[in-house]
Design goal:
Blueprint: E1 14-17, H1 21-32, E2 36-40, H2 44-53, E3 65-68, H3 72-77, E4 84-87, H4 93-102, E5 111-114, H5 120-131, E6 136-143, H6 145-151, E7 154-159, H7 161-174, E8 177-178, E9 199-200, H8 210-239, H9 244-255, H10 262-270, H11 282-285, H12 295-306, H13 311-324, H14 326-335, H15 348-362, H16 365-381
Parallel strand pairs: 1-2, 1-4, 2-3, 4-5, 5-6
Antiparallel strand pairs: 6-7, 8-9
């Protein structure tokens, strides 16, 4: 028995299914912007705790709030028609299970929005199945992680234009905002106090799986960017013999110039972090094995199918694959002797090497981004039937104005 009443019919503006961290933060973001958000989670205890942690008075002056539902049918009835229901659950089978549960309860013209990291072909399949039932479907990339979901993500929606028209007021309100001239994020969002003004980091991407396809390519570019940062780190540490603090200072300097980006910024910060138990530099004790969710691999597969060269991204994915096989690397290290390290002078020449490294680190970003634009354009023009592709991005631009680095 839930510790909250059955919600009143038509009492919510939008619904959200899936109250893991991303789902909770996106629901709070919508409530901060004045929307009454119906929320549902398969485990009722999670919903109860979420409501307890976020009472009505925390959402500021715009009139937003949370409308909990213990049963899926009550959750659906609480949302005004045409209903807008966002799903934020694990990609794959769990997403299909939620859609299968929702679809019989919805009315013609309602829209389901998948905000997970879906493979774009699954999005195409789901939209077709729901279209046959008279329902609308949006597959939307959501970028920015937990913090972005809470205070402003970049949103990449794909689907029918009429589906986007229903979703647009919500997505435009909750998206990150940037300065129209500089492309810089507008800071200052806090609980119950969203930022105002600026350009919303969302736009209609195109029909079918276009939104999730663009999110896939976006993630693929980030794979390449992260590998470039890793190789710069490797060169500074193992060739120049620089300390973590020295490398942090270099990256912070780069981030203040034309390499300004979130990834460079957080790397500079990570290199300064200490392990609270041992007080050693955290980067030196963390397990050197990286995982992946598949979007980089999907990007490379699509590039191969369309004949678009994406070598930087491919090598980044392979580097992660090597990173993941920790046991094999340890076994190989017992047999294969590593090359001897020869550090360069730490005096005048070190600065010269670092100055040379900066443009080398930056240079591959631009052709990679251009090649990914080519990939998006190719995907728009190619399909197995000879017709326009069912993913067909109509906008190949980032939803936000450009910043110096992706």
């Amino acid at each position: 028995m839930a510790n909250f009443p059955v919600p009143a019919a038509d009492s919510a503006d939008v619904g959200l299914v899936g109250l893991a961290v991303m789902g909770q933060n996106l629901a709070l973001n919508m409530a901060d912007h004045g929307f009454k958000v119906a929320v549902y989670n398969r485990t009722t205890a999670t919903t109860e705790q979420f409501i307890k942690d976020n009472p009505p008075g925390v959402f500021g002056a715009l009139g937003g709030g949370l409308v909990p539902g213990a049963e899926l049918k009550d959750f659906v009835k609480s949302i005004k028609r045409p209903r807008r229901i966002v799903i934020l659950v694990k990609a794959g089978g769990p997403t299909d299970a939620v859609i299968d549960g929702l679809a019989p309860l919805l009315d013609k013209g309602d829209v389901i929005v998948d905000g997970g990291n879906a493979e774009w072909n699954d999005t195409v399949r789901r939209e077709k199945a729901l279209t046959d039932k008279g329902l609308l479907f949006v597959g939307s990339g959501v970028s920015g992680g937990e913090e972005g979901a809470r205070f402003g993500p970049s949103l990449m929606p794909g689907g029918k234009p009429e589906a986007w028209k229903l979703l647009e007021p919500v997505w435009t309100a909750i998206a990150a905002k940037v300065d129209a001239k500089t492309g810089k994020p507008i800071p200052g969002a806090s609980r119950g106090k969203p930022v105002t003004g600026g350009v919303a980091c969302t736009t209609y991407i195109g029909p079918g799986g276009a939104g999730h396809y663009v999110k896939m390519v976006h993630n693929g570019i980030e794979y390449g960017d992260m590998q470039l940062i890793c190789e710069s780190y490797h060169f500074m540490r193992d060739v120049l013999g620089m300390s973590n603090r020295q490398m942090s200072d270099v990256l912070a300097e780069w981030n203040a110039g034309d390499l300004d980006s979130f990834l460079v910024e957080i790397t500079a910060d990570i290199l300064k972090q200490k392990d609270p138990v041992s007080d050693k530099d955290f980067v030196d004790i963390v397990l050197d094995a990286a995982g992946q969710k598949g979007t980089g691999k999907w990007t490379i597969g699509s590039a191969l199918e369309l004949g678009v060269p994406a070598a930087t991204l491919a090598e980044a994915v392979f580097a992660r694959n090597i990173s993941a096989i920790k046991e094999e690397r340890v076994a190989a290290a017992r047999i294969l002797k590593a090359p001897e390290k020869h550090h360069h002078d730490h005096g005048q020449t070190q600065r010269n090497w670092v100055e040379c490294l900066r443009p080398i680190s930056a240079t591959p970003i631009w052709p990679t981004s251009c090649l990914m634009s080519t990939l998006l354009a190719s995907s728009s023009a190619t399909s197995t039937t000879g017709e326009q592709s069912s993913l067909a991005p109509q906008s190949t631009a980032c939803p936000c104005p450009p910043s110096p680095a992706p």
